[in-house]
Amino acid sequence: MTNDFFLAFLLPMKKIIITIDGYSSCGKSTLAKQLVNELQYTFIDSGAMYRAITLYFLRNHINWQEKKQVQSALENISLEFIYNAKTLKSDMHLNGENVATLIRDMLVSENVSDVSTIKEVREFAVAQQRKMGKQKGIVMDGRDIGTTVFPKAELKIFMIADTAVRVERRFKELFAKDPNITIEEVMNNLAMRDYIDTNREISPLRKADDAIVLDNSKITMEEQFKMAMKWAKEKIN
Hints:
By secondary structure, the chain is an alpha/beta fold. The chain has a single domain, classed as Rossmann fold. 50% of the residues lie in helices and 16% in strands. The chain has ten helices and eight strands. The protein has helices spanning 3-10, 28-39, 46-59, 67-74, 106-116, 119-132, 145-149, 163-175, 183-199, 221-236; strands at 17-22, 42-45, 79-84, 89-94, 97-98, 138-142, 155-160, 212-215. Helix 2 (28-39) packs across helix 10 (221-236). The protein is globular, with a radius of gyration of 18 Å. It starts with a helix and ends with a helix.
């Protein structure tokens, strides 16, 4: 065996940044977590960050139409991802409180798109996200990760799925927590979020020019994972 072989074996594997953008309920977080587990990377859930900020605003009756109230509130918000040994996942902590379950509440879902359009909120979140990504070796999902947060990421994936498929996925997720939820509520919520995400003035949802489109309407989670891993290995090697 050559010295080059042993050198390649001993050298640490190159780390990259992987961004996963797309519409609500396309399975972005699911794919991100699969990649994290396989590559042993860090998962940054941007959606959880915006949800946690929204939860804080709702709890503290912040009028997010008022710039001064928003700025003052953001000064009192501390966000952190902490590994949960029981679930083997990183949970979102808001000011020291584990809010991983609370941020999935329907009231938060109904307001998070509005909150995430606010310039000051996005600047606050993006600054923290970029700080987390300095060492690379991360997978991050959201709406503007490949276009705004990490425009130079080595691998950008843009996920899409048929609307009916997305509604069904979201309904199953919410029904398990709230049997009173209706499919019409879920459908209207997704439609509203899609409109807000794609039409907001600050960092609207759009595909980066160099992103790879992944349509998972008719493929399994295992199939999409294999596709994404193939793309990741091509960028790492």
